[in-house]
Amino acid sequence: MSVKNELAYYGNEELLLRKSNELVAAKFRATDLETDIMNIAMSRIQLERNKNNGRNELIAKLYPSDINRIIKKGKNIYRDLKMASKLLTGHSMVVDTKSGFKAFAIITDANYENNILEIKFHDNLEPHLFELNNGRYATENIAMVTVLKGYAKRLYEILNLHSYKIKKFKGAGVKITYRLSELKFMIGVANVDETPVRKKINAYKSEEDIDWDYLYEHVSNEKMYTDWYKFKTQVLIPAQKEMQQKSNIRFEFEGLREGRPIKKIEFTIYENKPEEKWIEAESDAAKSIEENATSAYRQMRIPRYQFEELYDELVGHNGLVEADIDILLETAGLDEKKVFAAVSAADSVRHINNYMGWLISHIRGDYSEPIEVVEGSAEAAQQINEVKADYDNHKEEIGYSVWEKKKNDEEFKDFLTFLNKNEGLTLEDFELIFPTNKERLAQFIEWKKNN
Predict the structure, then answer these.
(1) Side by side, which strands form the sheet with 46-49?
(2) What pLDDT digit, counting tens, does each position of 138-155 carry?
């Protein structure tokens, strides 16, 4: 397949995000909103090099109105995102490795400020999103995941991992078996974040296999649907119906006994055509996600076999990793000569503060040493910055005074009416979502501009 055709294929209506098999099958607990936020954020990751340790930081920025268009959450999206930003940092993930497992926080920092939700993923996720040359990865249509609800969302991700085998079986269905206890931790019916469970997992050596049966039966307290009948009727059957309506695969299942109790589930996966209205909903979601997507899924569709020399020569050069070269190739429109030229030019420069930023700017042809001037005067810019610095030292005190004064203005009543009618917010809700006076004033000023 040519480069052009390959890019056209992956740029189709479907929004494809590749994750390692291990990441798809990880054990973690998250709400529907949190799962959607994480998936969408993974399509918008901007790799930023940490100056202190030289490692890439996986950072994504999301906007409430943007998320609302994708998942149609409603007027309470602001409060939901505020709450999600606090809860996301508390979730652990357990990922299997070739030699055992790794347990870590999925998201190390989530901050909702100035109407932007900024998410920083744990750097342990980088190889599971960006270093997928071994073929052990799943291609996931995350727009389809957003239209699924409840346990169908995670079950789809897990079962879709095996859907590539369906064509080989020519319609007969693909069979895959999971231990019941392990599956419950995978879909969040049992809570891997629970303190006793987390402590027991941390007590395992990283090269050991985790005994999920033992964890579920003897350690976990926060677990639902412990009875097979309830698990079948409350989790599996609703997910089965949901996926048959909305997704490109469907499944049948059978509980397998070890002695009297059911210890395993055998799934049989088939191709499926979703109902027309859900195809349209998925297409709408894909377009909304695509609109502000950055580099994650695009990086992973780079046809690396055509750029072996580039990767061989530049990986390791001044700390460059494969994901960096993906970004440079993307910026260069897959013109490797531009990438080589930028790196060569950088090698002749005495001092570069932001190496990747310099390379990207050079490829775009717009690099210049930043000099700040105001009305043609660098001295004027310096004076303004000094005044700004003095203001910054007292801005919260000033902001409080201004905000309290604004709350007494007649037009502030109109602002509160707007918040309540259009966003479903009270003043108390608004001040909770925007905790600093600077943020509150910015929202008020933006409202005034538009009204």
Answers:
(1) 46-49, 56-62, 116-121, 107-113
(2) 777 888 899 999 999 999
pLDDT at 74 over 70: no
Q: How many Å apart are CA 88 and CA 90, to the nearest integer? A: 5
Residues 6 or more apart from 185 whose CB is under 8 A from it?
Answer: 27, 94, 192, 212, 215, 216
CB within 8 A of 308, min separation 6: which ones?
Answer: none
A 10 A CB-CB count for 415 gives 19
- Chain segment 99-140, per-residue pLDDT in tens: 788 999 999 998 887 778 889 999 888 888 877 655 567 777
* Residue whose structure tokens are 């602001």: 78
What is the DSSP code (8-state) at residue 422?
I
If one compares 335 and 403, the residue with the highest pLDDT of the two is 335
Asked if residue 362 lies in contact with residue 347, where contact means CB atoms within 8 angstroms, the answer is no
Q: Which two tokens stand for residue 159?
A: 């079962």
Contacts of 115 (CB under 8 A, 6+ apart): 63, 64, 439, 443
328: nearest Cα among 345, 317, 312, 342: 342
User: How many residues are recorded in the chain?
Assistant: 451
- Does the pTM surpass 0.85? The reply is no
Q: How far apart are the C-alpha atoms of 404 and 394, rounded to whole Å? A: 16
87-113: string of b/e by CB count within 10 Å (b at 16+)? ebbebbbbbbeeeebbbebbbbebebe
Beta bridge partners of 47: 58
